[in-house]
Each structure stands twice: as structure tokens, then as C-alpha cells.
Amino acid sequence: MVIPLAVRTTQRLVALDAAHGATAAVPAAREAVQRIPELSADPRSLRGQDSDRLSALAELCEVIGWILFDAGCYRQAHRMNARALALAELCGDRWTARLVLLNHSMLGAHTGHPRAALETAFRVTGPRALPARVSSLVLVRQAHAIAMLGNTREPLDLISRAQSRFLDGISRHDPHWAWWIDQTELLGHQGWVLARLRRWDQAIPLLHHAATAPGPSYRHLFTAELLSALARARAWSEAEDLIADVAPRAARIGSVRTTETLARTAISLRQCADAPAPVRDAAAFLLESLPTSAVRTNFPNRNNR
């Protein structure tokens, strides 16, 4: 039966991603697409099927879309998000549809389309108030996009509102997937938004908290954003210390988004004439420690090794 298989596969992929990162989960995600024909069928051909069946398939597509995104397969993630949304809409699964839209907003922001990211985040809201944790995440997605569009004041209001909504706490109306929207996740994104606004004194402590707290593998991204903030703030000593901590484990980071961000910052530091020599040397060491693909993505026409 598709429902138990889809549910088991979703659980397995979520566990793989949390423990080892998206790149470790990609082979299992691709195997799932091969084993479950409905994952590659035209969603319209599934119209009229059992709603629980469609909902399980939609959730599995959402998880695969997330994994593909964090693994740097952005076009494939876009297509899987569209499939997940179509399946969720077929069966009226509004909560899975909302999660897909939140993921897709993040994909749009990451790939340089903040206006589309903002429009997608607005689609999550509706006539009824959202539970606190979901509402806080919507506000964070909007803050990222608006900060990228150059507005320096509205994002501050949005992240303040996000914190306020989060403090309203857990409710019986929370969707089952809201477990990962916790204080660490929120603080990390708040710090990231503040870094976009160049408010280093506020951003760096929040990112440091998120980067050093225990959590799933994908939160290594906050470490990469912390290093970026330290470099841009010219906090040379702290940047060097962080590189010394990250570089020995950089090859094991299972998030392509994270390794690409680390490579971009390392390249910038290595080329920064104002950076002390030990920092530039540390940046060169970090580049040597990262996967070749991450370095090539940021600097495709030069030999960075």
C-alpha cells in the first residue's frame, strides 16, 4: 500500500536529513521516486484518489523537495515543491501546502528572487489566524525577503513580531510538522536577518547561539552565516577561531547551502587585503577542507586549490 510506504519513507528521510544532512539523504530520496510511481506521475492523473493517500504523497514530496534544496539541487527542488503543492491542493491538505510554500519562499530567497519569495510567504496566510509558531516562521520568511529588497526598517519590525508570536507558545492547532520551529531556529533566523541589515552587534550573538546549540544537521547553516557576519564585521580574531573549529569537519557537512556559503566567505577573506595574514591563511585552509564542488560554485573560473 502506498500510504504506509510513503509514511515510512518520509520518516526515514527526515531522520537521515537530521542526522547526516541532505547530501546523505539524496540517494534515498531518489530511490523513493523510483519505487513509488505516484511521485513522478502527473498530479492531475491522481485526482479523485483517497485523500489520505494523496496527503501522504504530498508530505513525502515536500520532504524530498526540502532535501533537494539543501543539497543544492535547486531546479529539482522547485519541481518537487510544485508537485507537493499540487498534491496537497488536490486533497485539501492545507497544512502541507503551507509548509511547501514556506520552503519554497526560502528557495526563492536563496536563489536570488526575493520578490517571488515574499509573494510566496504571503500565500501562507489566510482569513484565519495561524498558530503562533507557524505565524512566527511566516514573519521570518517575509523579513528575509524584504531585507534582501533593500528595506532596512520593516524587517526589524517583522522579526520583533516573529519573536512575540513565538512566545505565545504551543497550541493544539499546531500542525504536526511544527516540531522543528523552536527557539534556536527562530534566533538563528533573527540573527541572519540582522546580518543582512549589517547590524553586527545584534546579529553575531544570535547566530553564535544558534550555531553552537545542539540540533539537526541542517543548522550548520547558522555556523556559515556566523562566519560571514564575522568576516563582514571585520572581527578577525573571532573569524579565525571559528574557521579553526569548522575546517576539520567541513568535509562532513551534509548541506550544500552551508558549504557554498562557507566557500564564498573563505574566498572573500583570502582576497581581503585588510584581513591579517593568519586570517587569510585560515581561509585558505578552509577552502582546502571544503568539497571541491562548493568552491567551484563560488569561483568557477579559477583554480582555488
Describe the fold and architecture:
The protein contains 15 helices and no strands. It is mainly α and 305 residues long. Mean pLDDT is 93; it is low at 300-305.
Q: What is the chains' assembly state?
A: single chain
Mean pLDDT: 93
Low-confidence sequence ranges: 300-305
Residues in helix, %: over 70%
Distance between the termini: 50 Å
Determine the number of helices (DSSP H or I, runs of at least 4 residues): 15
Name the beta content range: under 5%
Structural class: mainly alpha
Shape: globular
Outline of this structure?
The protein has 305 residues and is mostly helical. The chain contains 15 helices and no strands.
What attributes characterize this protein structure?
mainly alpha, globular
Describe the secondary structure blueprint for this structure.
Layout: H1 2-20, H2 22-35, H3 51-70, H4 74-91, H5 94-110, H6 114-122, H7 132-148, H8 154-166, H9 183-196, H10 200-212, H11 220-232, H12 236-246, H13 256-271, H14 277-289, H15 292-298
Helix pairs in contact: 1-2, 1-3, 2-3, 3-4, 3-5, 4-5, 5-6, 5-7, 6-7, 7-8, 7-9, 8-9, 9-10, 9-11, 10-11, 11-12, 11-13, 12-14, 13-14, 13-15
